[in-house]
Design a protein that fits this description.
- This protein has helices spanning about 1-25, 35-45, 70-80, 80-85, 95-105; strands spanning about 55-60, 65, 115, 130, 145-150, 155, 160-170, 185-195, 200-205, 215, 220-224.
- It is an alpha+beta fold.
- The strands form two sheets. Strands 3, 4, 5, 6, 7, 8, 9, 10 and 11 form a nine-stranded antiparallel sheet that branches. It has a two-stranded antiparallel sheet with strand order 1-2.
- The radius of gyration is 20 Å and the shape is globular.
Length: about 220
C-alpha cells in the first residue's frame, strides 16, 4: 500500500512539474517567434521596398523603405514597445546595428525582454543576428542586423553554418529573393564561421558562395 501511494504521489509530482513548465517556460523558450511572424507579415504586405536610411513605411500601399536597423526598429515597435525600449541608442535618434550588438554581447543582468545567445547551434527562427562593420570595410554603416528565419545548417566547409535571414539590404545574399539590382526588404542566406566552441567569429555575406570571409564581432539575441 505504501509503495502504491509513493507511485501515485510521484505521478502527481511529475504532472505538476510539467504543468508549471508549460505555464512558466524558461526565458527564451517561447514557441511563438513574434519577431519572425512580424517580419513575414511585412514581407507579405510588401509591394515595393528600397534600402534607405530614413524609414518610410506605408502598409496600405505596401511600401517598406528602410535600412537594416530601420527594419528591426519598425518590427519591434509593432510587436513589443517594451523590448524596443531595452535596445540602447548610441549615436542616432533610434537604435542602429551597433546598438543591437551592444544589447546582445555585453553582460547585462537585468534584460527583461531579451536573451543573449552565444552558440550558433542554439539559434532558431525568430532570433536576431548582428555583426559590426569589419575593420577593413569602407562602409559608413555601423554593421548589419537581420532576423533569422530558420535553423543553421552545415556546409561542405566544416566551420561554416548557413543561416536563412530576413533583412533590408543594398546587396543581396545567397539564394536571395531580391534581384541583383533590387534593394530593401527580402530573404536570403548568410554564412557564419564558427570556432571550436561553436561561437561565430566571421561571416560570409553570401552563405556558401562568398569566397572571402569577413572577421568581425558577431552577436545573437532572442525575444523572451
Amino acid at each position: 500500500m505504501m509503495n502504491r501511494k509513493k507511485f501515485i504521489f510521484s505521478l502527481l509530482l511529475v504532472a505538476i512539474i510539467a504543468a508549471l513548465v508549460t505555464l512558466y517556460p524558461k526565458p527564451g523558450m517561447s514557441e511563438s517567434p513574434l519577431l519572425l511572424h512580424e517580419a513575414e507579415r511585412e514581407l507579405s504586405l510588401m509591394k515595393t521596398s528600397v534600402y534607405q536610411h530614413p524609414t518610410d513605411v506605408d502598409e496600405v500601399v505596401g511600401r517598406f523603405n528602410y535600412d537594416c536597423s530601420g527594419f528591426l526598429d519598425y518590427a519591434l515597435q509593432k510587436i513589443s514597445q517594451e523590448a524596443y525600449a531595452e535596445v540602447p541608442v548610441s549615436k542616432s535618434k533610434r537604435p542602429l546595428a551597433q546598438d543591437f550588438y551592444t544589447l546582445f554581447s555585453h553582460p547585462i543582468s537585468k534584460l527583461s525582454h531579451w536573451v543573449q545567445i552565444y552558440r550558433v547551434s542554439r539559434l532558431r527562427a525568430g532570433d536576431v543576428v548582428v555583426w559590426l562593420r569589419p575593420p577593413d570595410s569602407d562602409s559608413h554603416n555601423t554593421g548589419h542586423v537581420m532576423v533569422i528565419s530558420g535553423k543553421p545548417t552545415a556546409t561542405s566547409l566544416a566551420n561554416e553554418r548557413l543561416i536563412p535571414v530576413i533583412d533590408s539590404t543594398s546587396s543581396p545574399h545567397a539564394q536571395d529573393s531580391r534581384h541583383r539590382k533590387q534593394t530593401g526588404l527580402g530573404t536570403g542566406v548568410i554564412g557564419v564561421i564558427v570556432d571550436s566552441q561553436d561561437k561565430a567569429i566571421a561571416f560570409r555575406w553570401r552563405g556558401g558562395e562568398s569566397k572571402q570571409e569577413k572577421e568581425t564581432a558577431i552577436a545573437f539575441g532572442r525575444l523572451r
